[in-house]
Amino acid sequence: MTDYAIDERELDATWSPGRGIIGWLSETGHKEIGMRYIVTAMCFFALAGIEAALIRLQLSRPDNTILGPDAYNQIFTMHGTTMMFLFAVPVMEGMGIYLVPLMVGTRNVAFPRLNAFGYYMYLFGGIFIYTMFALGAGADAGWFAYVPLSGPMFAPGKRVDTWANMITFTEVSALVVAVEISVTAFKQRAPGMSLNRIPLFVWAMIVTSFMILFAMPAVMLDTGFLALDRLVATQFFNQSEGGDALLYQHLFWFFGHPEVYIIFIPALGFISAIITTFTGRKPFGYPVMVSSLVFTGFMAFGLWVHHMFATGLPQLGQSFFTAASMMITIPTGVQIFCWIASISLGRLVIRTPVLYVIGFFAVFIIGGLSGVMVASVPLDFQLHDTFFVVAHLHYVLIGGALFPLFGAFHYWFPKWTGRMYSERMGQWAFWLLLIGFNLTFFPMHILGLNGMPRRIYTYGPHMGWTTLNQVASGGAVFIVLSVVCMLANFAISRRRGALAGSNPWNADSLEWATSSPPPSYNFLHLPVVAGPNPIWDAEPDPPVVVGMATGHREVLITKTLDAEVDHREEIPGHSLGPFYLAIAATIALWGAIFFAWWFTIGLCLSGIVLIFWFWPAREQVEVDMLREREEATP
């Protein structure tokens, strides 16, 4: 048996996923956790789609009685909450968790057990809110839960408490992923992958991670204040007791507008990867594109007040936020021109991922133009709280995130499964989505201009909104058919698709330098990077890192600037600790909305679990003692 075969066998035994239910619960591998994020987010996407279908069914005709006002408010709230908190951000995080370690040439994320804990918090948060919804206590104050509507005076019961605590679950998960991705990208890159050689998708995830670190604490604080107002009679947002209802909106939108870019910036990374591969040339203007990503992330925190123009804020302040809202279009425009230059200088091959990129251009530009409109104070006063804003929001989020995401699914499907999808079914799914999306949401611009308010559950026949609502509801059928077609394509191709090989697209980044699907240890020998496009820039017999341990989980730590080798780091393997800690946190957060002492009980249980988590195994103690003896021996 060759040395390579021995290393491969030992690495597989060391890094292989656990078996059975205990193995599944204790898993810490980044590919497994990343794929769980993606699959779970798609399940929530399906639930949000069902809720959207019910909304469109209710609005398809005037004076409809399929849904009553209470049911409509719950379904409307659950749809928005699911799409924003349980689908859009987590699915992008899942893509990052799966792909970033492969793209930077390492074997796992920086803190694998913390990574698993983040997933369980996300999963339990989603289960929590949908369980309460099934029990008749679904949130009903909108996905934004403005006070005083969501305060104790106007929203008795546990519905808003459920929503507020769910936010804590999902934002803790997001903060965990942000730490994982940023540390992995900066400290575990393959030797030679200096900062100016990092793939654009990894840069996009780095920017997203830093945005999460600054934005998510604001909404956690906001919903925490709301929960305290409701549960223990604090007065943070009670105007009559010295509180401030606008404080809630400021804190929420300080998170809420960066949230749009937290969803959008990873999509820009998808597009850069797809265009680079299918044009067969290096990305045009790499430094400019990285700078644009950073500028977008920075500017995203200076726009939040354009959601609040109708609240009576000082006009001088509004003018600054109008200017910022228009300025932020510049970096995205720069990236679009860089992509156009890459396409014009390369030889574009049209495949399904490229079609979704083209769809992004068409749809997102419309959303951007309508965004400039609502960023103008006089226009916003007329369009605020109308269906025009609903149309704008969906053109930006679906055009700016869902189209690139579905393109990314097709692009990396061969890497995940080792098989090719059906190109014909992929293109059918794309055209159904493009047609259905525009049929559904473009009429909403006109409905808004004609005065139809958003968040209403019915309308009279004399309003003249019936025809356009029926067109929108009919377009939703095409969207459903598109998603069903895409999922059927993936399900069939996963079993019967043609074998893909390691790099069917002749792509440039490191995830394509290993087999498809990747082995549990990612790389038999860690690669050494020779250029910004590692596969295209590689020598005929590229150097690799040797000497890495095969009997225990070990990653290579490199320096932040130039990725010079620093040291090796042993990382922990599988553990039930993250699962137990998530259960303890769930007891604290879920129980607190019924009885305050449950929060204390949950904290105590969390402390016990953390002792178990950090208690060193006997084998580790013996290894540490042996190392100390070796270091002490002259």
Structure description:
- The protein is mainly α and about 625 residues long.
- The chain is about 65% helix and about 0% strand.
- The chain has a two-stranded antiparallel sheet with strand order 1-2.
- Helix 8 (about 245-280) packs parallel to helix 11 (about 330-345).
- The protein is globular and about 75 Å long.
Short description:
With 634 residues, the chain is mainly alpha-helical.
Uncertain spans: none
Structural class of the helices, strands and pairings?
mainly alpha
The ordered string of helix (H) and strand (E) elements is HHHHHHHHHHHHHHHHHEEHHH
Rg measurement, Å: 25 Å
Shape: globular
Quickly count the helices: 20
Query: Mean of the pLDDT scores?
Result: 92
For the biggest sheet, the summary is: 2 strands, antiparallel
The count of β-strands is 2
* Strands ordered across the widest β-sheet: 1-2
Strand coverage percent: under 5%
Question: What is the share of helical residues?
Answer: 55-70%
Distance between the termini: 37 Å
In terms of topology, how is this protein built?
Blueprint (H helix, E strand, L loop, with lengths): L2 H13 L4 H6 L4 H30 L9 H36 L7 H23 L24 H29 L12 H32 L13 H35 L6 H14 L15 H13 L1 H17 L6 H23 L2 H7 L3 H31 L5 H27 L16 H31 L37 H4 L16 E5 L6 E6 L6 H16 L4 H18 L3 H15 L2
Antiparallel strand pairs: 1-2
Helix pairs in contact: 3-4, 3-5, 3-16, 4-5, 4-6, 4-8, 5-6, 5-18, 6-7, 7-8, 7-9, 8-11, 8-14, 9-11, 12-14, 12-15, 14-15, 15-16, 18-19
